[in-house]
Amino acid sequence: MSASLLQVVAQLLASGHYSDVAPQLDAIELQTVDQADLDHWPYAVQLLGHLYNSNLEDARFVYKRASSTHKQDPQLKAAFATLQHLWNKDYQGFWPLLTTTQWSEVTLPLVHAIAAKQRQDAVRLVSHAYSSIQPDRLASLTGINPQEALQLAQSEGWQMNGDIITVKRKEQPDTHKESQDHLQHLTEFVVQLEV
Fold first, then answer.
1. Residue 132: beta bridge partners?
2. CB burial class (10 A; 0-12, 13-18, 19+) of residue 79?
3. How far apart are the C-alpha atoms of 182 and 165, rounded to whole Å?
4. What b-and-e string marks burial along 142-170, b requiring 16 or more CB atoms within 10 Å of the CB?
5. Cβ-contact 137, 178 below 8 angstroms
6. Please, which pLDDT band fits residue 176 given cuts at 50, 70 and 90?
7. Residue 2's beta-bridge partner residues?
8. Angle separating helix axes 56-65 and 74-87, nearest 10 degrees
9. Using an 8 Å Cβ cutoff, are 42 and 5 in contact?
C-alpha cells in the first residue's frame, strides 16, 4: 500500500467516520490509473467499509475486482467470509467469525464498528419482529452471551417473565400525522398565494 493511500485509510479510520471509508476508497480506486497502485490496495478495508454501510452488493463487487493474489490475503478472506454470512443472514456464523478472527490493527476499529452497528440493527429488528424471545435466541442474534442478552433486554426496557423476555416496542412518533399537518399548512399557504 502506498504511503499516501495508507495515510488516507488511517485518517478515515481515525476520524471514526466509518460510513465514509468505502465511498472514499471507491472514488480513489476509480481515479487510480497506475496498476502498481492497485497491487497494494486495501481491499479488506474497502469491503468492510461496504459492510458497515450495509451495501452487501458493493462489497461483493469489491471482492470480485480483487486479483487472485489479493484473494489470498487472510484479512480479505475473513472479510469475504463475513460478507457471505451476512448475505445469507447467517448471524450464528457471522458473530463467531467476526469475534474470533485475528484482524489487523488497520481493520480492527472498522470491525468493532460493524459489530456495534449489527448488534444495534439486530436489537431494532427484534423489537419489531418479536413479542417475546428466549435469552439464548437474543444472544445468538446479537453476538453476546445469554447473561449479556438479559442485561441488554433490561437496558431496552424489556421484561423478563420466567425464561422468556417480553419485548416492548418503543413508541415511534406519528410521522403520518405530522406529514398531514405539514401538507395542510402548505395547502393553506398556496391558497393564500392564489388569492
1. 166
2. buried
3. 39
4. bbbeeeebbebbeebebeeeeeebebeee
5. no
6. low
7. none
8. 150
9. yes
pTM recorded for the entire structure: 0.80
Write down the pLDDT at residue 177.
Answer: 65
pLDDT digits (tens, 9 = 90+) for 35-86: 776 788 899 999 999 999 999 999 999 999 999 999 999 999 999 999 999 9
Q: Distance between CA 31 and CA 140 in Å, rounded?
A: 41
DSSP state string for the chain? --HHHHHHHHHHHHHT-GGGHHHHHHHHHHH---HHHHTT--HHHHHHHHHHTT-HHHHHHHHHHS-TTGGG-HHHHHHHHHHHHHHTT-HHHHHHHHHHS---TTTHHHHHHHHHHHHHHHHHHHHHH-SEE-HHHHHHHHTS-HHHHHHHHHHTTPEEETTEEEP-PPPPP-HHHHHHHHHHHHHHHHHHHH-
pLDDT digits (tens, 9 = 90+) for 135-171: 999 999 999 999 999 999 999 999 988 889 999 876 6
C-alpha cell at 74: 487472510
